[in-house]
C-alpha cells in the first residue's frame, strides 16, 4: 500500500502553526511504524508526527517488503504481537480474520505456534497503525517521501532535519528508525545484471551470496517460480539457519551464575543445551532463554571478547537464533541433498569479465565461478557512512559502538557519548543499536524498545502525558 495522501484528513499546517510538540520518525520500516503505534497509544497529549522515508510502501523496510510477500516469517505468531501487555494480540487478529481462518482450519482455536507469511504480518501492523491513528483526533500525522540527509541540534535544543523539502520545521523529538539504511539501486533491480561470462555456463547457474534467511528466501523463490538450474551458495562462514522445533520451545535457562569469559560462556551454553535435551526439552528452548540474558551478558564482556565474538561466533549465533520453520528447513535440506544446490565456504572477491572471483576456505588460490546471475543476499548492517548518520557523528550527537556495528545507545536507544552522558530526545530504534543491544533487530525486541521510547518521549514532551 502506498501512502501518498493517506493522512490528508488531519492538517499538518495546523500543527505547525500551534505549539504542540513535534516528533519526527526517520524510516518507515517495521521499527518506524512500531514506534508510531507506540507513540499514538502512550503519549496522551496532542502532538504532530512526521514520518520520513523515500520508500513509498508503508512498513516497507527490508524485512517486510523485499522478495516475496508470501515468504514465511521465521518467528512464531505468539512472539509477534505489537500490543504492549497483550501477547495474544496477533493471534486474536488472525482468529478474527475469516479468510485466514478458512485457509488454516487445522490451527483452530489458536494460531500461537504457527508461522505466517510476511504480507499477513505486514497487514496486521498496518491495521494496528490505522486503528491507533483513528483513535486519536488530537494528533496530526504527515508523511514525507524524502530521505533525511542531515540532523542538527539548534541552540533551543530542538532538531533541524534536512531533507528534500527546503522548509522543514524544528522537531522536539527525533526517532531514527533507519534500520539497514536506504536500499541501493542494484538491490531494487528486478532483474540483476548477468555475469558477463554467461556463454561459459553449460547449465543455467545462479550464485547466491550469503547464508542467512534471505538466501533461503531467494533460493525457494527461484524454485517456486520454476527455476531448475544449478544454484551455488557462496558464504564466508557457511552457517545456514538451523530449524525450529515442532514443540513450543518455551525459554529455559540455568539459574546458575554465568561465567565471565567467552569460552566458559560457550561451554556453559553447550552444557545447558545437552541437559535440556536429556530432560526432553530442546536446544531451541535454551537459545530462547539465552536471549533473555543476552543484554546483560553482552554488557559484561570486555571489548576484546566482543570483537572475538563478532569475528568467530556471531554467524553461529545468528544461525541458531534466526531459525527456519521445519517445513522450510526440510526443503532446504532436500535441495542440498539433491545436489541441485551446493553450499561453498570461502571469500567472494570481485566480479571480473570472466566471472566471479572466489577463494574457497583453506585454499591459497582464487578460482573463477561462472554463472548467468549473481544475487547478493547478504544482510548489510546499518550504514554508518550514510549522510544522515555522518552528520550526527560530526555534530557530536552520536558515536559508533565499540565494534562499529551501529550507534552506541542505551536501552531506550538514546545515543551514549564518551563522557557517559546520553543525548536526550534523540532515539535510535531497531538495528541501528545492534552493537549495544543484542537481538534489537528482531520483532519482539523492537516492540519492547518502541514502547520504552514512547514512555520516555511522553515524559519529555509533557511530564504528565503518559497513558494511565
Ligand atoms: C528478509 C528478512 C526477514 C526477517 N524475518 C524476521 C522474522 O521472521 N522475525 C523477526 O523477529 N525478525 C525478522 N527480521 C528482522 C526484523 O524484522 C528487521 O530487523 C526489522 O524489521 C528491522 O526493521 P527496520 O524498520 O528497523 O529497518 P528496515 O526494514 O531496514 O527499514 C528502514 C527504513 O528506513 C528507511 N530509511 C533509511 N535511511 C533513511 C533516511 N536517511 N531517511 C529516510 N528514510 C530512511 C528505509 O527506506 C527503510 O524503509 C527479518 C529481516 C529480514 C531482512
From TrEMBL:
Transmembrane segments: none annotated. InterPro entries: FAD/NAD-bd_sf, HpyO/CreE_NAD-binding, L-asp_N-monooxygenase_NS-form. Residues 24-180 form the FAD-dependent urate hydroxylase HpyO/Asp monooxygenase CreE-like FAD/NAD(P)-binding domain. It comes from the Bacteria. SUPFAM superfamilies: FAD/NAD(P)-binding domain (SSF51905). Keywords: Plasmid. This is FAD-dependent urate hydroxylase HpyO/Asp monooxygenase CreE-like FAD/NAD(P)-binding domain-containing protein. It comes from Rhizobium grahamii CCGE 502.
